[in-house]
Specification:
- The complex is a heterodimer.
- Chain A is an alpha/beta fold.
- Chain A has 16 helices and eight strands.
- In chain A, helix 4 crosses helix 5, helix 8 packs antiparallel against helix 9 and helix 13 crosses helix 14.
- Chain A starts with 5 loop residues before the first helix and ends with a helix.
- By secondary structure, chain B is an alpha/beta fold.
- Chain B has a domain of 137 residues: Rossmann fold.
- Helix content of chain B is 52%, strand content 9%.
- Chain B contains 19 helices and eight strands.
- In chain B, strand 7, helix 18 and strand 8 form a beta-alpha-beta unit.
- In chain B, helix 1 packs antiparallel against helix 12.
- Chain B is globular.
- Chain B starts with a helix and ends in an 8-residue tail after the last helix.
- Classes of the chains: A alpha/beta, B alpha/beta.
- At the A-B interface, helix 4, helix 6, helix 7 and helix 14 of A face helix 6, helix 9 and helix 18 of B.
- Chain A: It holds the Pfam family HGD-D.
């Protein structure tokens, strides 16, 4: 079994990020990445492998709940569970982007735990505070933040990714495979959205998950193998588009597909929203900052109207028959988007069904019951 | 029990002031609704009438209309378990005009807020859905610096405390706001006027600091938290006016008089308590509930303390000075170790024997505040509640929890 086989991606997805120790043993620094806003090209330009971190599949530990409080989105609690369980060992450092409040809370917690409890052996942790209002002042702030990250990475890896001390073309060399990777991810997206799709939502989710834990050049090779494969067309199922909370596991996708639904798209950043981050042409801090500032509207950082417009447009591009908003408890932002999303989708004749206040893993029966609502059947 | 004349006067002034705001709005002046952590002094310098969102939420809550206000949002499909404190004013706009608190809030022309948390800006987006209201957003940058003893640094060395990047960002946003308001109201910012407003804010903070120091040193405590909160906070909503400064001075003089004449909130004061977190607006009697049973007095709330330590920003360009007041304001209260160190400093200054810590959902890493206080030898009771939503807390359970804390964990006099 290899990367031409969807089953290989499913298997790799379940163990993504587990090879940190092997990479470190082979002499490659690994930088842990939390959240969607870290310019991973900069990390690669600094000579490290960026690995987007994910929490444990099980429930969060009592310690993580105590540190962050119970009223925190489950993926952050399970990620802290994993980090406090020792999985951060070997990381050259940890970059936390403020892509949502729970990421910010975790940064402050990790910074304090590292200061107060040196026995934990936590790696150095850095907050990347990229902001998103569409203003020049925000771009300037974000650019300064990227430059600050470059300095930090230099300290962690001994190799400057930017500026006069950087190896010639370091960032440009990192942007090239990143661009190639994005092109391939867009092809995956096309095949998923096609009239006769050959890529399932689960496979797309697995692809996004795996490529965020390996160097871009390696990801390109893996995707070339997948894209060269002659995958069978899916049987014609009804199409659902997922909005609401970020999905950091594949259980919901699997449950929907098992029931015959095609998960044709989503607007969270562990899925197709990640494709809204352009890979800049210019190898500069400003260009990297702008690419993140202008990325597609994630619920915690976007306005209600921007989010509603994006969800509606993407659902239409996917040919969705229904949009399912799946909102976890303690994930505050998506619930506020729902009424505007519902209105905008209704204007296009697409029903929205909601499951709010959900646990980390919603029962399959609940997912299917929501999609069996009369509005969907009609 | 002493009811502060300052508190009574402040509340009376507030009612009179609010009717003036309503009259100005009725006469066609633009009204601005501003979140507490946005730079409202610009509005003061422009002489634009404004109301602070959190203050209005506290009035709606105190009039026991918060439930109805949140129900309005729930019926429209919005969460009623998120951002209640920010959203009460929005929901209250839909309450029947008949019987609305203080006659009701006129529809604002502009709302100002920062993009704090994940959902605060969403609430203000919804204000902006009304055709007569526009939303101006500020970024909320995060604290990346960890200055020692920030309360000594921020009055004069604010650039060092918050860093140039955060200040540059907010200066640019304030300048954009000034242009935004000029286009919509025709009012042009007089920077000398803004500097004067900021001087008045600093003077007011100076009086609050003297009051805080008096209260910290007095034994027994001369003023109830339930009284000091309105006596401090109502003038805080008038920061940058002569009235606000003079009200802070009158509070100081009144507290000094109480100390001189030996007045005690609880003559049998045995336990000094600190209340960390927002005020329990729907149950202000809570702060007095343990005086008879345990001789336990709440001697501290953040409202006077942050009014004492959190606002002074002296010297420099007025817009940058204003940016320095707001760019990291919430860090002072909520970001560890900024917040943690300050709460420990305040607990020691006031000689408290125990702390009741109201842990709100939107405050990151509150556990470090508890940890810091307990490491300093001060017992802490964590209470998980939403301060503005009476549905989220059972008063009897809260009373029982505090009683148990006093009975089992607090040693009277240990903080002295």
């Amino acid at each position: 079994m290899g990367p031409a086989d969807p089953a290989w991606w499913a298997q790799r997805y379940r163990t993504r990020g587990d090879d940190v120790g092997d990479r470190v043993a082979a002499g490659t620094p690994v930088v842990g990445v939390v959240g969607a806003d870290v310019p991973v090209e900069l990390v690669e330009a600094a000579g490290a492998v960026p690995v987007r971190l994910t929490g444990d599949p099980g429930p969060p530990s009592a310690e993580a709940r105590h540190v962050l409080g119970a009223a925190v989105d489950a993926p952050t609690l399970t990620l802290l569970t994993r980090l406090l369980g020792g999985s951060a060992a070997g990381l050259a450092g940890l970059v936390v982007s403020r892509d949502c409040q729970s990421s910010l809370a975790m940064f402050y917690a990790l910074r304090e735990l590292r200061r107060l409890d040196p026995w934990r052996g936590l790696p150095p942790v850095h907050l990347l505070d990229l902001l998103h209002l569409p203003r020049a002042s925000t771009t300037a702030y974000d650019t300064a933040e990227v430059l600050r990250l470059a300095d930090v990475l230099t300290g962690w890896t001994g190799r400057a990714p930017l500026g006069p001390d950087a190896p010639a073309g370091a960032l440009a060399d990192a942007l090239r495979p990143a661009r190639a990777l994005r092109e391939r991810l867009l092809l995956v997206q096309q095949r998923r959205r096609a009239a006769e799709p050959t890529v399932t939502g689960s496979l797309a989710l697995h692809v996004h998950g795996v490529v965020s834990t390996v160097p871009a050049a390696e990801a390109v090779e893996l995707l070339d193998a997948l894209l060269a494969a002659d995958l069978p067309a899916l049987s014609a199922g009804r199409r659902v588009f997922l909005t609401g909370s970020v999905q950091d596991h594949d259980a919901h996708y699997a449950a929907l597909e098992d029931a015959g639904w095609h998960v044709a798209g989503e607007d969270h950043d562990r899925g197709d929203l990640a494709l809204t981050v352009q890979v800049p042409a210019e190898p500069t801090a400003g260009a990297l900052a702008l690419a993140r500032q202008r990325r597609g509207p994630a619920s915690p950082t976007a306005s209600v109207p921007d989010r509603a417009a994006w969800t509606t447009a993407e659902a239409a591009r996917c040919g969705a028959h229904v949009v399912l908003s799946l909102v976890r408890a303690h994930d505050e932002a998506p619930g506020w988007d729902v009424p505007a999303q519902r209105r905008a989708l209704a204007a296009c004749g697409v029903p929205l069904v909601t499951l709010v206040g959900q646990p980390h893993r919603t029962a399959p029966a609940d997912l299917l019951a929501a999609l069996a609502a009369p509005a969907v059947a009609a | 029990m002493t009811r502060l004349a300052s508190a009574t006067a402040a509340t009376a002034h507030q009612k009179e002031w609010f009717q003036q705001v309503r009259a100005r709005a009725a006469a066609g002046e633009p009204l601005v609704l501003v979140n507490a952590d946005a730079p409202q002094e610009v509005l003061r310098a422009l002489d634009l009438p404004y109301v602070v969102n959190q203050w209005w939420a506290s009035i709606v809550s105190a009039k026991r209309r918060a439930d109805e206000s949140l129900d309005v949002l729930r019926v429209q499909g919005y969460p009623d378990d998120s951002r209640q404190y920010d959203a009460i004013a929005l929901g209250a706009m839909e309450l029947p005009a008949d019987g609305a608190p203080w006659g009701g809030l006129p529809r604002p022309s502009v709302v100002l807020a920062e993009t704090s948390g994940d959902a605060q800006r969403k609430v203000f987006d919804l204000w902006g859905e009304h055709p007569d209201t526009e939303f101006f957003a500020f970024e909320r940058s995060s604290a990346t610096r960890v200055p020692d003893r920030w309360w000594e640094l921020v009055p004069h060395r604010w650039e060092e405390a918050f860093g140039p990047a955060r200040l540059d960002l907010m200066v640019a946003e304030i300048e954009e706001l000034v242009q935004f308001l000029a286009q919509r109201t025709g009012r042009v910012l007089d920077r000398d006027r803004l500097a004067h407003v900021l001087d008045l804010v600093d003077e007011q903070a100076g009086w609050n600091r003297r009051t805080r120091d008096l209260v910290a040193a007095a034994r027994p405590t001369p003023v109830a938290v339930a009284d000091s909160i309105p006596a401090v906070m109502v003038p805080q909503w008038h920061r940058g006016t002569e009235w606000g400064r003079d009200a802070a001075r009158r509070l100081y003089e009144e507290v000094a008089g109480l100390v001189d004449s030996g007045v005690a909130v609880c003559p049998d004061e045995r336990v000094r308590l600190m209340w960390i977190g927002r005020g329990m607006w729907f149950d202000m009697d809570l702060y007095r509930r343990f005086q008879d049973s345990h001789g336990a007095v709440f001697v501290w709330s953040m409202y006077l303390a942050i009014a004492a330590d959190g606002y002074v920003r002296a010297g420099g360009d007025p817009v940058r000075r204003l940016a320095a007041r707001f760019a990291g304001f919430t860090d002072q209260l909520y970001t560890p170790p900024w917040s943690t160190d300050w709460y420990v400093k305040e607990a020691r200054l006031h000689g408290v024997d125990g702390v009741v810590h109201l842990v709100a959902d939107d405050v990151p890493a509150s556990s470090f505040t508890t940890r810091g206080l307990e490491a300093a030898g001060i017992p802490v009771l964590e209470v998980r509640a939403n301060n503005a939503d009476p549905r989220a807390q059972d008063p009897e359970a809260l009373t029982e929890a505090i009683t148990g804390f006093l009975d089992t964990r607090v040693r009277p006099g240990s903080g002295r």
